[in-house]
């Protein structure tokens, strides 16, 4: 695996190093040793799948607050998504900055998201599936979010948003939460 830290400290885009032959390819998508070498978590306690039927579906921007803050490893196993993270760590030099990467079944990239970040994505094609590995169990009482179209972040989404949950639409302006 090739770990590329992005400008948001602690977040990484991870490319696979496939071994290709006449049968197809083989690649490691997670390795405890390689994650430890990059000072990333070496244990995930839960895996989730999100299947999205329609292009333009938007999920996010979600996180869990302490004491159940979570780190995530996200990969698109079917289809194509625009994956976005926002740095919500007040002490960070990149506080309120966002980053996006296209994840797809074809490019096989993963995004490692540290705790203290909000995460969401928009589907770029119908029938997209996203696979998450989580460092913490889901605790609904710690679940939080910020609005995907909040002007405090100015995220440039590539598609018209077709489908957003009521909950995700109703998060208050981030500035009002400070």
Commentary on this structure:
The protein is mainly beta. It has one domain (2-19, 27-172): Jelly Rolls (Sandwich). The protein is 8% helix and 42% strand. The chain contains three helices and 14 strands. It has helices spanning 32-37, 166-169, 174-177; strands at 2-5, 12-15, 19-21, 24-26, 46-52, 57-64, 72-78, 80-87, 98-104, 110-113, 117-123, 128-134, 143-145, 163-164. The strands form three sheets. The protein has a six-stranded antiparallel β-sheet with strand order 1-2-10-7-12-5, with no helix packed on it. Strands 6, 8, 9, 11, 13 and 14 form a six-stranded mixed β-sheet that branches. The chain is globular and about 55 Å long. The relative contact order is 0.24. The model has no long low-confidence stretch (mean pLDDT 95).
Quick recap:
The protein has 178 residues and is mainly β.
Write the layout of secondary structure elements.
Layout: E1 2-5, E2 12-15, E3 19-21, E4 24-26, H1 32-37, E5 46-52, E6 57-64, E7 72-78, E8 80-87, E9 98-104, E10 110-113, E11 117-123, E12 128-134, E13 143-145, E14 163-164, H2 166-169, H3 174-177
Task: Provide key terms for this protein.
178 residues; six-stranded mixed beta sheet; 8% helix; 42% strand; Jelly Rolls; mainly beta; globular
Kindly identify the CATH topology.
Jelly Rolls
Head-to-tail CA distance between termini: 39 Å
CATH architecture annotation: Sandwich
Helix content: under 10%
For this structure, what is the CATH class?
Mainly Beta
Tally of domains: 1
Poorly predicted segments: none
Q: Which strand order spans the largest sheet, edge to edge or round the barrel?
A: 1-2-10-7-12-5
Main pleated sheet: 6 strands, antiparallel
Structural class: mainly beta
Q: What is the radius of gyration?
A: 16 Å
Total strand count, please? 14
The SSE string, one letter per element, is: EEEEHEEEEEEEEEEHH
Going by CATH, the homologous superfamily would be Jelly Rolls
Number of helices: 3
- Beta fraction: 35-45%
> Overall pLDDT, averaged?
95
């Amino acid at each position: 695996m090739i770990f590329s830290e992005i400008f948001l400290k602690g977040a990484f885009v991870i490319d696979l190093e496939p071994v290709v032959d006449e049968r197809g390819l083989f690649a490691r998508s997670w390795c405890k040793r390689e994650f430890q070498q990059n000072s990333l978590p070496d244990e995930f306690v839960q895996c989730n799948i999100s299947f999205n039927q329609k292009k333009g579906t938007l999920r996010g921007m979600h996180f869990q607050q302490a004491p159940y803050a979570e780190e995530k490893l996200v990969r698109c196993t079917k289809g194509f998504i625009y994956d976005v993270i926002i740095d919500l760590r007040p002490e960070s030099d990149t506080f309120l900055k966002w980053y996006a990467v296209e994840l797809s079944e074809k490019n096989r990239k993963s995004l490692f998201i540290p705790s203290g970040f909000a995460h969401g994505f928009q589907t770029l094609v119908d029938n997209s599936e996203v696979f998450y590995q989580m460092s913490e169990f889901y605790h609904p009482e710690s679940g939080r979010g910020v609005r995907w179209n909040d002007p405090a972040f100015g995220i440039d989404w590539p598609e018209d948003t077709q489908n957003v949950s009521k909950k995700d639409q109703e998060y208050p302006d981030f500035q009002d939460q400070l």
